[in-house]
Write a structure and sequence with these properties.
This protein has about 500 residues and is of the alpha+beta class. It folds into three domains: about 60-160, Phosphorylase Kinase, domain 1 (2-Layer Sandwich), CATH 3.30.200; about 165-235 and about 275-375, Orthogonal Bundle (Transferase(Phosphotransferase), domain 1); about 390-510, Tetratricopeptide repeat domain (Serine Threonine Protein Phosphatase 5, Tetratricopeptide repeat). About 45% of the residues lie in helices and about 10% in strands. The chain contains 18 helices and twelve strands. It has helices at about 1-10, 15-35, 45-50, 60-65, 120-135, 170-175, 180-200, 285, 295-310, 320-330, 345-355, 365-375, 390-400, 405-420, 425-440, 445-460, 465-480, 485-500, and strands at about 75-80, 85, 90-100, 105-110, 145-150, 155-160, 205, 215, 220-225, 230, 260-265, 270. The strands form four sheets. Strands 1, 2, 3, 4, 5 and 6 form a six-stranded antiparallel β-sheet that branches. A two-stranded antiparallel ribbon has the order 7-10. The longest helix is centred in the N-terminal third of the chain and has 19 residues, at about 15-35. It is elongated and about 85 Å long. The relative contact order is 0.11. This is Protein kinase domain-containing protein.
């Protein structure tokens, strides 16, 4: 009987319960031992065609003619607000676009700077490059191109983008205290957007990733913006070659490359070249190499740092030469010294890997996305009273690190909030989480009671997935107590439900 029950349990190891249970149990063992939406291109272009930055012999005007579906007239755009944000090459202003049908949409207008010392050709090409690239992007974590308006000969160039009311991540972080699962949600979104860019054919390097270039939407999701430094890359372009050894070249590289030239005279350091976000720049770029996909990963590590700590990179350094020397020497902070970060050792390790001095040693975005995928998270709610989902995810975070008492306390709070709000689903989830926690604490009677109540509520509200997970939890508990006939009954019921609802994950090993 015991062998048969073990076989039944193994067949259910892919289920939601098993994944959560296994992580929690692994954390407990470790503690004891040690003490897309990708909807395709936007209107008028396919993703690969629109981001193609080899314009051939076409002029800026001819290239814009190919994007006529995005063109807006000046009188379609009005500026009811004086609110603006200034950057190195542009300012962003809130505006309203009025369509022919009378519909209005709140937008962000990026007005590129032009001054008499600039070449009109360079100004035009940078504008067209960004519009072309944006026209081919469509992802929930990437800013959406609404349109453009221009009079390039007069130095007027506007890029009209989707409006996101919560500002950038840096601004959003200072509006209130976010819990760790809310911060991880923003990190997951950032990696999601970066994964989309790096997986294009050919890949797109953002080139200026930082908290100031990541917006927070009305639904509190992270949105990557500002593609003025973005470049299309191919394999040849990913050779990271410092300036003094000869630049990497490729036919797919066009436009003005974002480089910093560093010159030392005595004890002085001089930086020349286009505006660059030096605090986030990888060492090879500060040394003169072109921007690259591994460079984005260095910057992504700093974005994780900012989101978790509320601090800029190198917050105590103000002089450019001091920042540059620190970057070149590969000096990065200890992730374990921060109270928030020290609670998530896997994220600490991931950030440290992103900060590897040699670009070849840094992880790719797919690896980063996989690493954070399992971390408990929930989008920020915008309200100060913690939601059931936030309390549940905070509890999962503690449980995954073997802190059962803290987890149980948070799950009990979630149960209380669910009871006062009258939400059956939230109550069932909290009971299910408590059942798992009590199981790990070998509080068998409390665990059984929690699983039974969760299973009853899931049944009442028609949540078959939750019901099967609760039954599987009971099966594991009964097996622990050598109550094999009851374990068999629970496992069989769970298996039947997973089969009926076509849950491949629940039957991964059958």
């Amino acid at each position: 009987m015991r062998r048969f029950i073990s076989k039944l349990a193994k067949r259910l190891q892919g289920s939601r319960f098993w994944q959560l249970f296994s992580r929690s149990r692994a954390a407990l063992v470790g503690q004891t031992a040690g003490g897309a939406r990708d909807a395709g291109a936007q209107q008028g272009a396919s993703p690969d065609a629109a981001v193609e930055t080899i314009p051939g012999k076409l002029s800026a005007r001819e290239r814009l003619d190919h994007l006529s579906g995005f063109r807006l007239s000046w009188d379609e755009i009005s500026f009811p607000s004086s609110t603006s944000h200034r950057g190195g090459k542009a300012k962003v202003v809130q505006a309203t676009v009025r369509r022919e049908a009378g519909n209005e949409e709140t937008v962000a207008v990026k007005k590129l700077y032009y001054h008499k010392d600039m070449e009109i050709r360079k100004f035009s090409n940078e504008f067209v490059h960004e519009v072309e690239l944006l026209a081919g992007l469509s992802h929930e974590n990437i800013v959406r191109l609404i349109g453009f308006a221009e009079q390039l000969e007069q130095g007027e160039a506007w890029i009209v983008l989707s409006w996101h009311p919560n500002g950038n991540v840096r601004e959003f972080l200072v509006t209130g205290e976010l819990e760790i699962p809310e911060r991880i949600s923003l990190i997951k979104d950032t990696f999601g957007g970066l994964m989309y860019l790096h997986s294009r054919n050919p890949p797109i390097c953002h080139g200026d990733l930082k908290s100031l270039n990541i917006l927070v939407s009305s639904s509190y999701r992270a949105i990557i913006t500002d593609f003025g430094s973005a470049r299309v890359r191919d394999e040849l372009a990913e050779r990271v070659v410092p300036e003094d050894r000869g630049p990497a070249t490729s036919q797919s590289l066009t436009g003005e490359e974002a480089k910093i030239r560093v010159g030392a005279t005595g004890n002085q350091l001089t930086l020349t070249g286009p505006a660059w976000s030096l605090r986030w720049a990888p060492p090879e770029v500060v040394n003169g190499a072109i921007t690259s996909l591994p460079g984005d990963m260095w910057s992504a590590g700093w974005v994780c740092w900012e989101i978790m700590t509320n601090e800029f990179p190198f917050p105590k350094l103000n002089l450019e030469r001091a920042i540059a020397l620190t970057v070149i020497r590969g000096k990065v902070p200890s992730t374990h010294d921060d109270a928030q970060l020290s609670q998530i050792t896997a994220l600490c390790s991931l950030m440290t890997d992103c900060w590897k001095f040699d670009p070849i040693d840094r992880p790719g975005v797919a690896q980063c996305q996989n690493e954070v995928a399992w971390m408990p998270s929930t989008p920020p709610s915008g309200v100060k009273t913690p939601s059931i989902e936030l309390l549940l995810q905070m509890g999962e975070l503690h449980l995954s690190h073997g802190r059962q008492e803290e987890a149980a306390s948070l799950f009990q709070q979630a149960l209380a909030v669910g009871g006062s709000a009258g939400g059956s689903e939230g109550i069932a989830k909290a009971l299910f989480a408590l059942g798992r926690t009590y199981y790990l604490q070998t509080k068998c009677s409390e665990s059984e009671e929690s699983f039974v109540q969760a299973q009853q509520i899931f049944t009442r509200i028609g949540d078959d997935q939750g019901r099967a997970a609760a039954l599987q939890g009971l099966g594991e508990l009964y097996r622990l107590q050598t109550r094999y006939s009851e374990a068999e009954e629970s496992f069989v019921q769970a298996q039947q439900i997973f089969t009926r609802i076509g849950n491949d994950q629940g039957l991964a090993d059958t």
